[in-house]
Amino acid sequence: MTGVQAPSRPRMIAVGALCTTTIFRVDRILPPPAKVMASQMVQVVDGMALSAACAFQRLGGQAQAWARIGDDAHGHAAREALREEGLDVSGLHVVPGARGSLATVIVDQAGERLVVPFHDPDADPSPHWLPLAQLAQADLLHCDVRWPQGARAAMQAALQAGVPTMLDGEVAPPGVLDELLPLALYAVFSDAGLRACTGSSDIERGLRQVAAQPTGLPRSMHLQRHVGASCGRDGYVWLEQGRLRQVPAPQVEVVDTLAAGDVFHGAFALALLEGLEIAAAARFACAAASLKCSRFGGRLGCPGRDQVLALLAGQDPSVN
User: Fold this and answer.
1) Could you give the CA distance from residue 191 to residue 55 in angstroms, rounded to a whole number?
2) Domains of the chain, start order
3) CA-derived radius of gyration, the chain
4) CA–CA gap between residue 59 and residue 299 (Å, rounded)
5) Model confidence at 6: pLDDT above 50
6) What is the rounded distance in angstroms from the CA atom of residue 126 to the CA atom of residue 245?
């Protein structure tokens, strides 16, 4: 078989905040003052876009991380942890004098959580160092809302290079989503993020409101614009040619919902780049996110590709 090249793996660049997180599992989260013994504990390097990148990598793609890291032991350890997982970490930038981001997460037996993050307020947010020329080799750019300066610079450059952009439409400070959404070819919300963005608790109304807003997309991308929302147990809902469509999520015993939305984004991006239609990509992503919810440990619970395909094999492929 000489001269035959293996098909290349899709390549995604992820831009966002990076954090070293300690996750504790407890029976239930008590109101203060209280002391609760943890039954399990893990430490993980995560962040919304970064966790999506790790899922993208684990499920079969190639991912590169662009993020700021602290000029301390936490920052340097985070780089090595992501390198060991196979991510391209050449786009991680040490901010001189900054402390690495830390978080503590407490997860109860129902899978609900309490999250306490710390990000150095004095860390320089400038994106001037981003290696934007590397976007030409990417198949998709995925951004979260936790570092809006970096997301805006990268999304603008990606669109100029003709590279598709995906935004994790999560709850954000006022004005951030308004600034970034016009630059997203794929606007993929959480249900809470959509509600925060539009002020509506009705998913269909919220999606139509976003879809009606003007974009900064090149003319060649306008007809490809996608707006959808990941709704936990209710699966994924999106607009397709003006019609509301929905893929249900497989039912699992929920252990830990932390990073489920991030796994959804990474799996959805990979499936789209592999050529699946929206409905099939959403089924794949919902299966990956559901399996993650059945496992403790945040993004460490992301399944492998064979496990996702095995779950899908037993699912009803219908789409509402």
Assistant:
1) 20
2) 47-95+128-312 (3.40.1190.20)
3) 19
4) 12
5) no
6) 39
Q: Please give the backbone phi and psi of residue 223, each rounded to the nearest 5 degrees, phi first.
A: -75, -15
Return the bridge partners of 237, or none.
229, 246
Instruction: Cis check for the bond before 164: say yes or no (omega within 30 of 0).
Output: no
Q: Assign 3-class secondary structure to the chain.
A: CCCCCCCCCCEEEEECCCEEEEEEECCCCCCCCCCCCCCEEEEEEECHHHHHHHHHHHCCCEEEEEEEEECCHHHHHHHHHHHHCCCECCCEEEECCCCCCEEEEEECCCCCEEEEEECCCCCCCCCCCCCHHHHHHCCEEEECCCCHHHHHHHHHHHHHCCCCEEEEECCCCCCHHHHHHHHCCEEEEEHHHHHHHHCCCCHHHHHHHHHCCCCCCCHHHHHHCEEEEECHHHCEEEEECCEEEEECCCCCCCCCCCCHHHHHHHHHHHHHHCCCCHHHHHHHHHHHHHHHHCCCCHHHHCCCHHHHHHHHHCCCCCCC
List 67's β-bridge partners, or say none: 92
- Among residues 226, 229, 143, the alpha carbon closest in space to that of 186 is found at 226
pLDDT band at 7 (very low <50, low <70, confident <90, very high): low
Q: Is the pLDDT of residue 317 over 60?
A: no
How much is the pLDDT for 169? 97
pLDDT confidence bin for 3, thresholds 50/70/90: very low
**Around 151, how many Cα atoms within 13 Å sit in the side-chain half-sphere?**
27
What pLDDT score was predicted for residue 316? 57
Q: What does the mean pLDDT of the chain come to?
A: 94
- Does the pTM of the predicted model rise above 0.85? yes
Give the CA dihedral 174, 13, 106, 249, nearest 10 degrees: 90
CA torsion angle 285 290 190 75 (round to 10): -90
